[in-house]
C-alpha cells in the first residue's frame, strides 16, 4: 500500500481522536532542529591541523571516514540533511572557523572567519548557531577559563566570549533568523575545593564583562549551559545548574539544558516549564547519557518524547530552541546525525499528534483516569503512517531507505579518506 494511502487511513483514525494530522505535520515542520557540526569530526575542529579534544568531554571510537576539513564536513552534512526531514540549522563551534590556513587566536576571531559558512548556509537555506570554544586550547589546560585566578588568562577567555557574541549576531543578521550563542565552559576541580565561592564570584564577574554590551535579540540570543561534572572535574563544576539559573536570570539569558548534565534520575522534560516560569527562554542540548554524560546518539525514547510533548503542550515553540549535542565516533558519523535528528523530528511530530486539548481538559476536570487511559492509548495509534508520509512530503527517504543511501556515500566518499 502506498505511503499516501496509509496516511489517509491514519488521518481518519486520528480524526476520531480529535487530532488533525495535517495541522500536526504543519506544526512540526515549523520547529527548527539545530544539528551539531561536531558530530562530523569528533569535535576536533579546523583551528589547527592537529587539534586535540580536551575539557573533560570525549568522543570514543575510531570509525573511519571522519571529515578532515571544512569542505568534507559540509559535504557530509549535506548528505545527512538529505536524509532528515523538517527545518534544520547547523550549530558551529568557534574552532570550525575558516581561517584559510592561518592560525587565529581565539580572542581575535571575528565575523570574517565565518563568511564562507554564511555563504554556504544561504545556499543550503539553513540557519546557523554558534558556540565559543573554551576548551581544546593551551590556556584551558589547567581546567579553568572564565573562572581562572590569573587575570591574563581570564581576560583572554572574556575576549573570546565577547567575540562569540558578535559572530553569532552576524550569523543571525545574515541569515535573517536568531542564532543561539551557547556558552559552555569546562571549569571545575578534580578534587574537593575549599573555596568554591571564590571561583564562582570570579565567573560571575567574567560574565558581567562579557555581557557588558548589547546584541540584537532579533538575531542572537545567548545561552548559558550548566553541568554537573566533567572528566577530571568530578568534585566541583563552577558553572553548576544553580549558578546558571541565577546568572541567566540576572542577565535575562537563555538557560541551556543539556540532557546529559544532570544526575541520572533527573529529567530535563520536567525542568522546561519551571525554568520558563521565570526565564525568557531555553536552549536545549538534546543528548543521550548512558550512565554518565556519554553523548550517545539521540534515540526515540520516552524522555525524548516527553521533552517534545512539554514544548508543544505548553506552546513554547518560540521560547525553546531545540539543539542536539552528541558525538559518537564508533559508528558512521553521517548515520549518527541522521538517526539523532530523525529521532528528534519524530518526537516533535509525535508530540504534535497528541490530543492535547482533550488531555488538558481531562486534567483540568480532575479526570485523571481518562488522562492515563488516553496517554496509554495514543501509543498504539498509527504514528508510523504519519511519520512516513511526513518524510515523503519532505523529500527524504521513507523508513530505513536512508540506510542504503548512507552506505553508498560511505563506500563512494568516506572510504577514500585514509
Ligand atoms: C559539554 C557540553 C557542551 C559541548 C559542546 C561541544 O559537556 O555539553 O555543550 O558538548 O559545546
Ligand atoms: Zn551540551
Secondary-structure map:
Elements (H helix, E strand, L loop, with lengths): L2 H14 L4 H8 L4 E4 L33 H12 L6 E4 L23 H10 L2 E3 L21 H25 L3 E5 L4 E2 L6 H15 L9 E6 L10 E2 L3 H11 L2 E5 L13 H7 L3 E5 L15 H13 L5 E5 L8 H20 L3 H9 L3 H10 L5 H11 L7 H12 L6
Bound molecules: L-rhamnitol and zinc ion (ZN).
The site of zinc ion has 5 residues, from loops.
Which properties best describe this structure?
418 residues, alpha/beta, two-stranded antiparallel sheet, 14 helices, binds L-rhamnitol
Summarize the structure.
With 418 residues, the chain is an alpha/beta fold.
Overview of this structure, please?
It contains 14 helices and ten strands. The chain has helices spanning 3-16, 21-28, 70-81, 115-124, 151-175, 196-210, 241-251, 272-278, 302-314, 333-352, 356-364, 368-377, 383-393, 401-412, and strands at residues 33-36, 88-91, 127-129, 179-183, 188-189, 220-225, 236-237, 254-258, 282-286, 320-324. 47% of the residues are buried. The strands form two sheets. Strands 3-2-1-10-9-8-6-4 form an eight-stranded parallel beta sheet. The chain has a two-stranded antiparallel ribbon with strand order 5-7. The protein is of the alpha/beta class and 418 residues long. The structure holds L-rhamnitol and zinc ion. L-rhamnitol (RNT) is lined by residues 38, 43, 57, 93, 131, 184, 225, 227, 258, 285, 293, 325.
